[in-house]
Amino acid sequence: MTEKIDISLNVNGRNHDIRVEPRRTLADALRDDCGLTGTHLGCEHGVCGACTVLVDDEPVRSCLLFAVQARNAAVRTVEGLANGDSLHLLQQAFRDHHGLQCGFCTPGFLMLATRILEKTPDIEDGELREVLSSNLCRCTGYQNILKAVRAALGR
Question: Which of 51, 105, 125, 142 is the most exposed place for a label (fewest CB within 10 A)?
Fold first, then answer.
């Protein structure tokens, strides 16, 4: 059995002191050790994007990153978007523009879109499509996701 190590993860501005095997993924640590189940695991190969979180304000596939690699970094998950009962601008836009159906991919899209909103709010439509196409959705056909993100960028 692999020996566990103590690490501290700063997630959504809160420190989580956890004990993990060095090979434990950030996705598993967030869900199982920090109790933050909003990050979804889909393919576990970095293809679908359901597990996208922000690490130091950059989108990463948390299924491909070891938890120990996120030490000393600021991790943001979908749980950190809303302010109490008040939805984040993007969450409200996804709701208003029907940017979700089954909802499985939504946390990954929300985190990817958060990065866009914060870093490149004047993104061109073609580039927006390209960035969002890195995440997979099997239900919506993407049009309403695009509408939702564009609406949030317009606010």
Answer: 125
